[in-house]
Amino acid sequence: MIFFPYAKYLNAVMATEQAAGTLIASEAFADRIGIPQDKRVYWRGGAFAVEDPWNFSERPSFDRAPAMKTCHTTALSNAGLDLEEIDLFDFYSCFPIAISMACESLGLDQTDSRGLSITGGLPYAGGPGSSYSFHSLATAVERLQAGAAKNAMVTGNGWYLTKHSASVLSLEPNSETPTAAANDDFRAPSSGEPVMLDKAPEGNATVETYTIGHGRDGSPEKGLIVGRLDSTNARFLATAPSDASLLADLETRELIGTKGNVAMRDGKAIFEPA
Q1: How far are the Cα atoms of 32, 84, 153, 241 from residue 145, in angstroms, in the given order?
Q2: pLDDT digit string (tens) for 1-31?
């Protein structure tokens, strides 16, 4: 276990000894250098959008990513294709939640026979820093060139599921001029008013979400709590008491929705579940 509920093989792995390459050219240049027609892969369209509010601590909900849905559905629309016409997917997979939310945004079953990754994702394929998605694009090009599929969709995200991108590649060019815009300023409709963050919380509170960090020996070391004050509904960020037995116990039950008390101690917010 790394940070509960994510075990080691569910975490992104950054590998530096990797490289990928793709030649991007105009149709005229491809003609001039003799690229066979059956080896040409076209960018049919895509989209890019960011969450609003930007800061994760201000978001009204942690189980929704409205900009991701805007991005992915707009990419398909810009490409002039329906979800059923996509043969290959590579959803950016730094952690399981990224794939789960991508499927939810598209209404795609996670057991879809087409699969959700053509590389294995960051936990298995790894990635050279910020360039993982380029490996996905290069792999998609190879699969399409080999005749394994006709259309592929590759997505990416950054920060705390904050920035989203999607590209649709195809053996056939778009009959319209491709675009990558979800809207003029790349922002999806706001998910709601930013939530106020109380930096010195005190009082009865309720857990919104949480995680528990583990040391190299596998034992729990730190509990990180995000919650709301019952009195003001303001959000707070806190840690759980650093008691190993308590932290181990917290992993045996669902904390979301749990009541408790948060208080400032030596300049730090500490949450104790009831």
Answers
A1: 19, 20, 15, 55
A2: 999 989 988 888 887 788 899 889 999 999 9
CATH of 203-273, one of 2.40.50.840, 1.10.3720.10, 3.40.50.720, 2.40.50.100: 2.40.50.840
Give the span between the Cα atoms of 103 and 116, in whole angstroms: 9
On whether the CB atoms of residues 101 and 92 are closer than 8 A, the answer is no
Is the separation of the CB atoms in 55 and 235 below 8 Å?
no
The CATH superfamily holding the domain 3-170 is: Thiolase/Chalcone synthase (3.40.47.10)
CB 168 within 8 A of CB 74: no
Dig out the tokens for 22 from the structure.
């793709």
Please, which pLDDT band fits residue 191 given cuts at 50, 70 and 90? low
**Model pTM?**
0.89
How far apart CA 274 and CA 87 sit, in angstroms, is 50
Q: How many CA atoms lie within 13 A of 30 on its CB side?
A: 13
Q: Are 75 and 105 in contact (CB under 8 A)?
A: no
